[in-house]
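Margin note from the TA: students keep mixing up input and output lines. Inputs are the sequences; the output is the structure of the whole complex. Example:
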Amino acid sequence: MGAYMSEKKYTKDHEWVSIENEIATIGISNHAQESLGDIVFIELPSVGNSVKAKDEICVVESVKAASDIYAPIDGEIIEVNNNLENDAAIINQDAENDGWIFKMKISDSNQYSDLMSEDEYKQFLEQ
Amino acid sequence: MPFAGFNMPINYKTGIINEHKNVRNHSGIFDVSHMGQILIENNESYLHKLEKYIPLQLKNLIKNRSHYSFLLNKDGGVIDDLIISNIDIKDKPYLYIVYNASRKKEDEEIFISCAPNAEKIYNKNCLFAIQGPDSINVLKNIIDIPNNMNFFDILISKYDNNEIIVSRSGYTGEDGFELSIPNESAENLITDLLKNENTMLCGLGSRDSLRLEAGLSLYGHELNENITPIEAGLSWALDKERLEDKNLNGNKILSDQLKNNLSNKKIGLISTNKSMLRDGMTLFDNNNNEIGKITSGCFSPNLNKSIAIGYIKSEFNTDNPIFCEIRKKLELLKINNLPFVKKNYKKNGSVYE
């Protein structure tokens, strides 16, 4: 069994999560970047921190407002996207790929299964 | 976004930063029809009553000129800030006043009490602001604008066979115009303006970042009923002779403030890293003492940093470091004289500061 990329899942806080070999990559959804408007600054989380689902772990600042980013599942922060330090607008350009924010080693994969699929998230946005 | 009872766009398609830069480099169009517009007959009895609230000599207002002023409460606090102009409409002399949407109720109570037949015109006239160095080029093929029109000049022009009020003014720090136009012609005018491909519609977001860069005060932020124009650093807008006139609300308080030291002063601030300064954040000195608060903050597209306006205690020596609490951490700020971006008004139009 080689590495595999899971389907992308979404949280009610408009974050996306994809998992590869128990490493989760997290960012904000394209819908979230559209409603935030021009993103000018991100305070990245600290690598090495252990966090629980729903913990506020970093902040995205747009021209309109500051928005907290939550840990979608329990785990340890193992990497952050340093490119965003110099150019947070990458999130506006490509929120769900190059605009990833941090990676976590996850401790409970069941939490991941509970998140919304892309279709479910689309329905959630329409509500 | 709901704003003073109106549903207003924060931005259009291309976003706040792009709209902001387009105004600084070319031009942009703001629909400010939510603002109050009223016509008051220019007669001595009305002027005298209005002078209780407005710190200008209203009978001396020059025809076809606009003035930045205020309505003052009995303590000299600002009920609203406004633009008041002396203009003839259909050969009849009027004061034309533009005021904040959020203060319509308070302002109109005063206007009607002074001049019972004052005519609110914002239900039949839209108000558009076209702002930026290219505004004149966008407008001149559509509306007749005399070459010698200066900043804060105002006149009647024509569009679609309708009379429109054209003033060379705005609140972005740039040259520009405000057009009060009958509703039935409004859509045609916008369509005509947008034929120029270098202009675009702009929302409330860029309106705020543009006025903040220009160091201009906004009601509800730098101004409210507990702040006098002098405390807000706007004493240049007061007619000093009126401060000796008992008919003016708060004249004694204002005149004392002008002679004595104030407890607070208005300052401009720039973030030294990338975090954003926002309204309500608390300011501290080197020893962790609270010294003031931010009243407006935004991202400045021109400086590529966050900027803010705030009030601090006058005794604070601005050579010392100043800090702002952002998410429970203290961050060092730089004090910057207002405005952050040089104003670009036409000719002798350094009307604001």
